[in-house]
# Entry
Amino acid sequence: MTTREWGAIYKEMGAKPVINATGSVTLLGGSTPVPEVKAAMDAADSAFIPLIELEQVAGDRIAEMLGVPAAYITSGAGSALTLATAAFMAGTDNAKIEQLPDTTGMPNEILIQKRQRYWYDRCLELAGAKLVEFGDENGTSEDDLRNAISDRTAAVHYVVYEQRPKDPNVLTLEQVIKITHDAGKPVSVDAAGQIYPLENFGKYVKMGADFQCIAAKYMGAPHSTGFALGTKEVIDAISRHSFVGYETHRIRGIGRPHKIDRQEIMGVVAAVRRWFSIDHEERLSIAEGQSQAILRPLKGIPGVRAELNTNIMGHQPYGVFIDLDPDVVGFTNADLVQKLRDGDPSIWTRVPDGASRLELHVFGLGEGEAELVGNAIVAAVKG
# Structure
């Protein structure tokens, strides 16, 4: 990679390319399709095909690879959440599908534990549903859930981060599934990043959840892709609410803007197939090596605490934690984020919400960029 080639297509339009040390985040473009995915997308250009048929056969292939009842490719994991919520409320009733986002006469409450509220639960409301919390900031009991379920309940939602310490004050997914199913209601799971270890891939549907979503961008598919996994009933309903239901069945559902093209559909299938065949030990070794390359120049710098993130679960393995002593270096962690962003080239990282230190991820780093990031931090600290 040369400086002239890097980001030239953006520079020619007057836009400023950046080095992505934040990870697979939407605000920076999410992912870069891997060669196998690009090849499948190029091959998809060779002919047109009815997308309702392609969605069906592509979903069948993914479901077979993952060992779940059914799957459906969507325009990202957030799209899968919105379409699934619509499916929980209106099912396959064409009149109700067309009535959304007006939920009059339908169950329209999605229950979620107070301590599990998160940034992307907004996607659950976009089809017209109402998020209803149960439990409180101190935790949740089984009776809290039992008492919250009513005729208005469309589903109970659960979010999973296997790479984080388990919260002992929330109900487990097993508890939620049992109590919710005993009440005759479905369970929805956001597991967008749970793609490794491989046994976690589709794990929650196998546990009994009626739906879970996955973001395909984490596996080298296009940024704007994801998929729903679930029971055949839920996936069939999602299809009717989706853009292909709108165009093929002529049902004016809320999913029309959630369009995905035939190239992306084939790219997702190729990404999942690749994910089950690649050497993950090699993949993790590369990520660890990139992380060590960031750390190397930071050793022994006064006021800089830098350590390896040893997590290998989920979608962003390894990485680096950076914590500055402002009394020594003269500025804060937040100041370092801005200094790196203001540099040339601009390096994007962040202090995540609820954290106090920088978390650098190598998911989006190209050849030679890990060393550049480490050296840029040294330069910022030394002034």
